[in-house]
Amino acid sequence: KIILGIESSCDETGVGIVRLGADGGLELLADEVASSVEQHARFGGVVPEVASRAHLEAMVPTMGRALHAAGIALTDVDAFAVTAGPGLAGALLVGVSAAKAYAAAVDRPLYGVNHLAGHVAADTLQHGPLPQPCLALLVSGGHTQLLLVEDIAGKITEIGSTIDDAAGEAYDKVARVLDLPYPGGPPIDKMAKQGDPNAIAFPRGLTGPRDARFDFSFSGLKTAVARWVEARERDGEPVPVPDVAASFQEAVADVLTAKAVRAATELGVDTMVISGGVAANSRLSGLAAERCAAAGISLRVPRPRLCTDNGAMIAALGAHLVAAGAEPSPPDFGATPGLPVDTVLL
Ligand code: ATP
Ligand code: MG
Ligand code: FE
């Protein structure tokens, strides 16, 4: 069976196509992404109106490129999946409307699915079926969550989440303080390689002995970095950008991996998946590999292309739903900006 996935929750217009084998295995046939990230760069963050307009312009061409890359026609698609939420309302509307139109045109079922579950499903395109239950650390521009995945096609429970900024958001804000380009993850990652991660002791939010839960906080860290840089500038001293980047990155990777490993251990789960844009971070995956190995947990991190927003991950989740025999979404389902992570399918 061929499943086509459409993603438009933020600033990437993605169309992915996968083939679901009789054995439940997935083959990636196409993964086309058009990003409006450059249009948002000068604002230092995604501008919703600009993103919606860009989706509208990119949707049909991206669909054309994906079908061409897979070497199929629209009539060859057996089922469609689309991100129904969470995300920006206007951005989601473009994808959901397009998906309804394409599915109706060829009279195929349509699954309105959860973007966050899609991030987790992306890993199955690279590493095969997910051992379940597993723990997912989802770290992106808008989310930072620990999820217990008992069934990717239906049972996902949030066990922790950020109480303020997402990890990616902290990267983007710190990049701004350091005069590095937007989005901040890649340039900070690169700078950090030339710096000393122990140069500055930045705070690790919510890691005290009384913080037994699995929530995260990055807003204090972001403020601490800004204060540190301001103090330097006030004293007329140069800012050692590589050391600040490395020390900030170390604080983020330390907190994320420490909590994720503790959660997996306490829940008795022996597989961890890291996904979302920040999973592309070299120190996060490096430290996670070390700590997971020490704790006897097997770690899966998809390649960077599958970590950031794309349509292939939505197609993958759609394929898992088809394989599980799930009912397609009702024809009147809408875009749901605040869709909770435990709702995998509308
Ligand atoms: P969400 O999935 O929560 O709706 P989003 O679509 O913005 O949000 P992604 O595209 O998954 O999220 O991730 C984008 C974020 O990933 C940005 O904040 C960016 O700075 C961060 N990022 C990308 N590469 C890296 C990296 N190497 N290190 C750290 N962060 C990174
Ligand atoms: Mg993005
Ligand atoms: Fe995302």
From TrEMBL:
Family classification: Belongs to the KAE1 / TsaD family.
Source organism per UniProt: Goodfellowiella coeruleoviolacea
SUPFAM superfamilies: Actin-like ATPase domain
Entry protein name: tRNA N6-adenosine threonylcarbamoyltransferase
Swiss-Prot/TrEMBL cofactor(s): Fe(2+)
CDD domains reported in the protein's UniProt record: ASKHA_NBD_TsaD_bac
EC number(s) reported in the record: 2.3.1.234
Catalyzed chemical reaction(s): L-threonylcarbamoyladenylate + adenosine(37) in tRNA = N(6)-L-threonylcarbamoyladenosine(37) in tRNA + AMP + H(+)
GO cellular component term of the entry, any: cytoplasm
Chief localization: cytoplasm
Domain Gcp-like: 27-315
GO molecular-function terms, A-Z: iron ion binding; tRNA N(6)-L-threonylcarbamoyladenine synthase activity
Record-listed substrate binding positions: 138-142, 172, 185, 189, 281
Gene Ontology biological process: tRNA threonylcarbamoyladenosine modification
Cofactor binding note from Swiss-Prot or TrEMBL: Binds 1 Fe(2+) ion per subunit.
UniProt keyword terms in alphabetical order: Acyltransferase, Cytoplasm, Iron, Metal-binding, Transferase, tRNA processing
Gene name of the encoded protein: tsaD
Binding of Fe cation, residues: 115, 119, 309
PANTHER family on file: TRNA N6-ADENOSINE THREONYLCARBAMOYLTRANSFERASE (PTHR11735), TRNA N6-ADENOSINE THREONYLCARBAMOYLTRANSFERASE, MITOCHONDRIAL (PTHR11735:SF6)
